[in-house]
Design goal:
With about 240 residues, the chain is an alpha+beta fold. It contains 7 helices and 12 strands. The longest helix has 22 residues.
Amino acid sequence: MIDVDVWSTTLDVCDASFTEALTFLSQDEQLRANRFRDLSQRQRWAASRSYLRHVLSQYVDEPPDAIRFDYGTFGKPVLASHPAVHFSLSHAGELAVAAVTTIGPVGVDVEPLRSFPQLAGMMSLSMTASERAVLDQCSEEERATWFLHGWTRKEAVLKAIGEGLSGKLLNIEVSLDPSDPRLVAWDCHATEDWVIRQINPCAGYIGAVAIEVPEPLQVRIVHRPTHGVVQLSRIRRTPRPT
């Protein structure tokens, strides 16, 4: 049995929390945060990145502001000084989710449940012909939800390999059934090396965690929610997971 810790929190986007969040970020992270023109996006990005630092500090025994990220070709952050710790971050709306494991590269994606006025166009850009056929048979009420299950599963896989949306969504085929999260094919070839797990971090959101497991191992998702709005100065005192 291998574990993937999934941390989640509601982001505080007030001016005071934004100022506090910036104190934990590196200079390049601060510059990136300030590139967001929309104030709420700027605040949430900074808060989610600070939250990630506080979570990771419990695995590497370093203060949150001392953690140094290196970046892959497509911008995925990694801990070069702690190569055994793998992580992924996703934030949407007021929710941030971080996945951490020592097994191998991991990806997480979360989305709020919602309707899509231009769903047909999004389907053509991100879903394979087989996936579109499944969605076409869904009722109007469930089509958007099944689409989001597919989207988060694909995005989690791409984030695990460090490509994110720069990867080719149409090269990956997944099950869209909410009760059957799995990777069906990659570049038209069947694959059994990936484990996908559905997560429901809080009401109104769905998500997925993906991890490559070349051996037939069971993967357990361990939920570690931070209840309420994250208090960055307090999470440092949370006991380290064992």
